[in-house]
Amino acid sequence: MDEDQVPSQIVPEAAPKRSFGDRLQSVKRTFFTKEGLIGDYDYAFLFKPNLPFMKSSNQASPFFGLNDRMPILLALLLGFQHSLAMLAGIITPPIIMAASVNLTQDQEQYLVSTALIVSGVLSMIQITRFHIFKTPYYIGTGLISVVGISFAIIPVASGAFKQMYDNGFCPKDPVTGVHLPCPDGYGAILGTAAVCALLEILISFLPPKVMLRIFPPIVTGPTVMLIGIHLIQSGFQNWAGGSGTCASNPVGDYALCPNIYAPHALPWGSPEFLGLGFAVFLTIILCERFGSPIMKSTSVVIGLLVGCIIAAATGYFDRSGIDTAPAVSFVWVHTFKLSIYGPLVLPLLAVYIICACEAIGDITATCDVSRLETEGKIYESRIQGGVLADGCIGVLAALCTITPMTTFAQNNGVIALTRCANRGAGYCCCFFLIIMGIFAKFAASLVAIPSSVIGGMTTFLFTSVAVSGMAIIARGVPFNRRNRFILTAGLAIGYGATMVPTYFDHVFSYSGDNKGLKGFLDAIELVMETGFAVTAFVSMILNLTLPAEIEDTNEAVPVRGAGSSVTGPHEAAPHDADRDSAASEGGKGGEKML
């Protein structure tokens, strides 16, 4: 019996016990028969391009439910597709944050490798779903709910690093003022994130209806949109040559991008850099228009690959990092001194609230495309288990030297496109991510990609985050007078703080020796200069305090689901009407980005 047909109870009935002989026959049938290895799936469907002169097939491919038996080859193929769909979203945050805090090349390569490994390992927690003994609670969703680094941490970390360099927590060159490597700053992010993750763990024990009441689409939509808008600045700076010192302070070794010793160094904003990024951007568009289903769901990675080929052919690659990188890597090869940075506490609490909202929206979308119920006790237990797992994963990720992680949304598009919700494909995805991370040469190759190629990819990626926020608003917020007022008030300060992030620098003039007070004032400053945090707080307060007006009583009720991913270019919720379509919008922008 499929899981979507069982009664609405939190604890499903126990599966009948199978004898050793039955298990042996099952293993034999799976690994030693054509049906178990290959099956009769139409593999050509995944690779058939969408060319104008080719006739499209009207035959729908079979749907593989959560616990259905599926061929080994298909599980491996779709798992690899899931891993490619996640790849760009996983590697982007560590690359950006390593550049913001000027880590060494070895440390940057390590963070990329570890991000892949930790994503693969911790995704298994969500996919497996553990029942907490003698309680009605779970850890995990039991769905293909894969996790990656949340993009919400990037604006907070960038602002914190800037503040750390300004207040002396991180070192500067005394002559030129160039920012020096600050691994302790990254360690402060990790230590503070591990503590603040406890908030999301507590949120998971709230009834889902209460969570949706506190964090409705009118709060999460503009918040997600502003996260994307803030990130676009970093993506576009990289597109033009780099977002580091060569863009902000082009002197000395950084007069050219990425530096004067690079094999093909050019001034920031050179047309050659812009052309490389445009090649990536154009490839993504062509994959969406003419590509096969597997190309559409991995279009961002294909665009990155094409950009790398062009950059290598024209001499922009520096092989030194690849040649000196070790063959293999693993967690804790490099470590960072953990500490609590007081000014980061309030912003990181906001990040984990956003992560909880993302999880609710993404899990709802995953249930939808997996043909499972999106209401009732089993659904609510998946929400509770998913948010609890997200909080636990936040703690574990920090202890594994990686910033907060949350569920990814782009994999919902892969499920809708391939019609496969089987957890076997999810486990194969985890396997491929771990393998990619262990082979350090692969991470070194990703770190060596020129900034302009990364920028062409991340600009598309981050814009899709902003579009996801707009979609949350459009689908879940009736545009009556009250809601327009809440959106206007929330976005007014949020947009301002995003466009002019230094507006709050001179509000506090305290210069005494009280470090506690100084840290508290720095925390307020960091929150007020983080646009999405301001928007979230203002929208939440107004939504809870402003009464509904008389003309609002006949308005449509907002849809279920608190949010959508900020970690990729795909929206979270393909609905019943289109989830069976091979060109489903769920796979291309229509939780958990890329």
TrEMBL record:
Topology in membrane: Multi-pass membrane protein
Residue stretches spanning the membrane: 72-97, 109-125, 137-157, 186-207, 214-232, 273-291, 298-317, 340-361, 425-447, 453-473, 485-504, 524-546
Major subcellular location class: membrane
A UniProt-annotated Pfam family: Xan_ur_permease
Location of the region described as Disordered in the Swiss-Prot/TrEMBL record: 559-594
GO terms for cellular component: fungal-type vacuole; plasma membrane
Family: Belongs to the nucleobase:cation symporter-2 (NCS2) (TC 2.A.40) family.
Protein name: Uric acid-xanthine permease
Species for this entry: Bombardia bombarda
